[in-house]
Amino acid sequence: MSTYLSRLGLEAVNPGAATTSGFLATTGREVPSFDPSTGESLGSVRLASVDDYEKVVTEAQRVFADWRMLPAPKRGEILREVGEALRQHKDDLGMLITREVGKVTSEGLGEVQESIDMADLAVGMSRQLNGLTMHSERASHRMYEQWHPLGVVGIITAFNFPNAVWAWNAMVAAAAGNTMIWKPSIKASLTAIATHRVCDAVFQKHGWGGVLNLIIGDDADVGETMVADRRIPLISATGSTRMGRHVNQVVAGRLGRCLLELGGNNAIIVTPDADLELALRGVAFGAVGTAGQRCTSTRRLYLHKSIAADFTARLQKVYEQIPIGDPANDGVLMGPLIDDDAVRMYLEAVATIREQGGEVLTGGERVDRPGSFVKPTLVRAHRDMGICKHETFAPILYVFEYDDLEEAVHQQNAVDQGLSSAIFTDSFRSAERFLSHAGSDCGIANVNIGTSGAEIGGAFGGEKETGGGREAGSDSWKAYMRRQTCTLNWGTDLPLAQGVTFDI
Ligand code: UN1
To answer: Which residue segments constitute the domains of the chain, with CATH numbers given?
Structure first.
């Protein structure tokens, strides 16, 4: 076994559940995790059962009763040490992400950095879970609101950010005084086990095992049980719109809360006065980075007709020279897709593109080498192509031409998803038009920056079928807490609000 795997405590077969005193002896089926660059197994996970889930949720609830009473800044001190532990294991975790989900080295490391940033942010947050005070209309009364933790938070994450998306949720949920259960994608189970182990060791050291909990099991039993569980007041789910719609319906049925970060169909608009060199780099990273497997990946490009031909030709050249290969190798910019299922979906999308009249300018095929590699694909598209309205989780970019900005913004918004968007322009008016109430309808709107690679300080998420949730920075912590409005009377009368009288 490679040294980075053993340094992260991974075995050939690893248990898929952990709670108060560490990992449980799970007995479910064994599922290997493959390196998508080679198809070789990196190790396995033994899945958790519904019985294991029951043990985990019972512990998470029990520990919550105490954890919520620890002052938030003291919780923050533990998170500061979690940030340190992530720093110490950054290289190994980054390498594991590179091997297990195929991210190039700098993106694997960048993902761990995103988790470290979240830990640092949550330390500060632990001193700023602030409520407002209001002026009461009644004499000798005081009104204020305060924020309490919710309880056990369920965190469902996708394969593509197997470390950072958990951290967005976990660092904030823990600072807020919640305990949690993480159900990661089985496709990235080893990264989840290693991440849990690194961070949980800090909690264990301080006697707080059971704040972070892990369950890796099948969606059909463990997943459904967790989503339907009334003991889980909040389910935070990241993944496809199909998954999120189902989770939302089940959780709404029990009047629980959801925080959803689902599919994107992100566009970049390039105006005639844009810095085209900047735009070229922004589009290439957005569309080809992470092999197009970010929820923020750029999927549509709107070029003003005066620059369209030249820009498309330059982009095509970039596409044809993208170094594809082992994501751990220096200089490689694009690794594999997550697995052969993803390759199949990519190839099906390419066939549909052709059927619908799209012109594949470059790419559209598998790379001739072992592993799940495909070519980054550039398509000259037209508006009636239904496929452009769907999120294909692969490096496929649809290029459109536009006449005026109004029309481009309209086209950009004319999809069901609403996550990220960007404009490249040197025109103040165009930028402000894009950012106005009548501009982008997405949760993220950037100027002279691509659609992906958001910093954690802002609130992250999107509208429409992206699910409406906001995670990470700003005031996203509020989603992990319950608000309580308190009115205190320190007088000797009992005046009623709105002038109502009730004299007995
Ligand atoms: C995702 O793809 O689910 O903004 C998250 C970005 C990253 C997060 C992506 N910070 O691209």
So the answer is: 3-262+467-484 (3.40.605.10), 266-447 (3.40.309.10)
Q: What is the pLDDT of residues 24-37, one digit of tens each?
A: 999 999 999 999 99
Is 261 one of the annotated active-site residues of the chain?
Answer: yes
Q: Does residue 85 come out as left (phi exceeding 0), alpha (psi in the -120 to 50 range) or beta?
A: alpha
What was the pLDDT predicted at 2? Answer: 82
State the pLDDT at residue 93: 98
Give the E-state strand segments of 253-373 in sequence order: 257-261, 266-270, 298-304, 359-362
Count the neighbouring beta carbons within 10 Å of the beta carbon of residue 285. 18
Which atom of ligand 1 has the smallest separation from the CA of 293? 2
Please answer whether residues 210 and 62 qualify as being in contact, where contact means their C-beta atoms are separated by less than 8 angstroms: yes
Ligand 1 binding pocket mutation candidate from 157, 290, 293, 460 (most atoms within 8 A of CB): 460
Q: Identify the burial level of 24 via C-beta atoms within 10 angstroms of its C-beta, where 0-12 means exposed, 13-18 middle and 19 or more buried.
A: buried
Q: For the whole model, what pTM was predicted?
A: 0.98
| Distance between CA atoms of residues 221 and 213, nearest Å | 18
Reduced to 3 states (helix: H, G, I; strand: E, B; else coil), residue 144 is strand
- CA of 450 from ligand 1 middle (Å) equals 12
Closest ligand 1 atom number to CA of residue 264: 2
d(CA 457, CA 162): 20
Reported in sequence order, the residue ranges of 140-221 that DSSP labels E, i.e. its strands, are: 141-149, 152-156, 179-183, 212-215
Q: Let me know: does 61 contact 152? Beta carbons within 8 Å.
A: yes
Asked if 450 and 283 touch (Cβ cutoff 8 Å), the reply is: yes
Q: Which residues line ligand 1 (CB under 6 A)?
A: 114, 160-161, 165, 238, 294-296, 452-454
pLDDT < 70 positions in the chain: 1
Please pick, among 261, 391, 401, 465, the residue that the annotation labels catalytic: 261
